[in-house]
Amino acid sequence: MRPIGAITRGTTNPNRLRRVDNWIVATLGAVLARAESPLVVDLGYGASPITTLELHRRLGPGIRVVGLEIDPARVAVAQPFADPPALEFRRGGFELAGLAPTVVRAFNVLRQYDLADVPSAWAAMTATGAVLVEGTCDELGRLASWVTVEAGVPRTLTLASRLSTLDTPATLAERLPKCLIHHNVPGRPIHALLSTLDTAWRAAAPLSTFGPRQRWRRAVEATRAAGWPVLDRPARWRLGELTVPYSCLL
To answer: Which terms are listed as keywords in the entry (predicted)?
Structure first.
């Protein structure tokens, strides 16, 4: 099967995807537990397989992980780190090398494509029933956002930040997924969400005395009070996360 897609820049760093990995474990763990043979595909791991190795370790035993890259040279570099069948590296693109995974993680991949390519990529990666976690982050993983996609349809958006280094939630706009980054303009829902969160963060500045987690939690509570359908519980908010249904952004 010929891989679908194009070779991307491939830059990566250790722990860059720690936030989304921990979110997958906490939020999609039940989905993986119900699967008869749970398989997670890491699509587009880049020039180094480090983030695939970290994902495999964080998911724990019993979950098979396959890293896919469209560049055969990158697959060759990763092969010495393989531990089949628990951890493999193969050549593949949006067609997922013919695999039928339970979950697909595709980070910092579609950001390098045209916006028009997003729907077909989503459809291809979820064609066999996988839950897709697709998003982007900065080089050190301090700012990130991702969408979950099922059957080609986006279901949720999560914004995540390292609170100890967060200046303002407005900076999350730089790391929105491809599907949203061009819509971050006045009058569009994603711009309104970020503006509400940013205003709430500034208003919660007095709580900085008790640490950034308390300040973020108050900002999320204020965002929810302003009418945004914030999901999850305070335990996730304290980690610097905010998740909303994607439907509120349409």
So the answer is: Methyltransferase, Transferase
Q: What is the CATH number of domain 18-161?
A: 3.40.50.150
Distance CA 196, CA 209 (A): 22
Q: How many whole angstroms separate alpha carbon 145 and alpha carbon 172?
A: 8
What is the 8-class DSSP label of residue 139?
T
34, 62 Cβ separation under 8 angstroms:
no
Distance CA 247, CA 178 (A): 16
**pTM score:** 0.96
**Burial, 145: exposed, middle or buried (Cβ in 10 Å; 0-12, 13-18, 19+)?**
buried
C-alpha span between 171 and 224 (Å, rounded): 20
Packing angle between helix 212-225 and helix 189-203, nearest 10 degrees? Answer: 130
Pick the closest to residue 67 from 36, 33, 105 (CA basis): 105
Name every residue whose Cβ is closer than 8 Å to that of residue 23 and which is 6 or more positions away in sequence: 133, 146, 158, 160, 241
Give the single-character DSSP code of 83: B
- State the pLDDT at residue 1: 66
Cβ contact 77:70 at 8 Å: no
Give me the residues paired with residue 91 across strands: 69
pLDDT tens per residue across span 155-180: 999 999 999 999 999 999 999 999 99
Confidence of residue 12 (pLDDT cuts 50, 70, 90): confident
pLDDT over threshold 90, residue 115: yes
Quote the CA–CA distance of 65 and 87 in Å, as a whole number.
5
Q: Where are the domains of the chain?
A: 18-161, 163-240
